[in-house]
Amino acid sequence: MNLVKSLSVAVMAASISLSGSVLAKGDLTRKPVALPDLVMGSEQSDYSLSEKRYELETGTAYKLEITSSGLKEYALQAPEFFTSIYLRKVEAGGMEIKAMTLTELEFEDEGSAEIYFVPIKPGSFEFYADGLQNKGMVGEFVVK
User: Fold this and answer.
1) Is 39:67 a contact under the CB 8 Å cutoff?
2) Which residues, other chains included, contact 4 with Cβ-Cβ below 8 Å and sequence gap of 6+?
3) Neighbours of 141 (CB within 10 A)
4) How far apart are alpha carbons 13 and 26 in whole angstroms?
5) Cα angle at 50 between 46 and 53, to 5 degrees?
6) What mean pLDDT is reported for the chain?
7) Distance (Å, rounded) from C-alpha 117 to C-alpha 28?
């Protein structure tokens, strides 16, 4: 009986340790997937967004460059999305900013910021330029 228990425990321990290595996909701090840039405002319209939809997967590292044309003040918000990601860092103005989460990225003039993150929760999450949603400055992150 003890032999059966010992074998059962050994098999279970081996399967747990093997399953951990099977699920690991590598170092998420290296070589993030570069998403198409999100540009707010264009020559055609102050109220344009270059991208309206991003399709992402949980557990994959991404880099997203967000750029303001400077035609308006833009405050990019995505409250549910920002709380559903692991934020690695934000790079802007020659600085690297380490934070736990974001509230918004506000651009008073022309400029850009890069966010590095890993989605950790599936769902559909809206992003928008605050106060300009009725002008069509709305999109979504779809995380599978």
Assistant:
1) yes
2) none
3) 23
4) 22
5) 130
6) 85
7) 9
Going by the DSSP 8-state scheme, the letter that residue 11 receives in this structure is H
pTM value? 0.78
Distance CA(42)–CA(121), nearest Å, equals: 32
Cβ atoms within 10 Å of 64's Cβ, excluding its own: 20
Burial bucket for residue 105 (CB in 10 Å: 0-12, 13-18, 19+): buried
| pLDDT tens-digit readout, 82-136 | 999 999 999 999 999 999 899 999 999 999 999 999 999 999 999 999 999 999 9
Strands 123-129 and 138-143: antiparallel
Compute how many other C-beta atoms are within 10 angstroms of the C-beta atom of residue 78.
Answer: 20
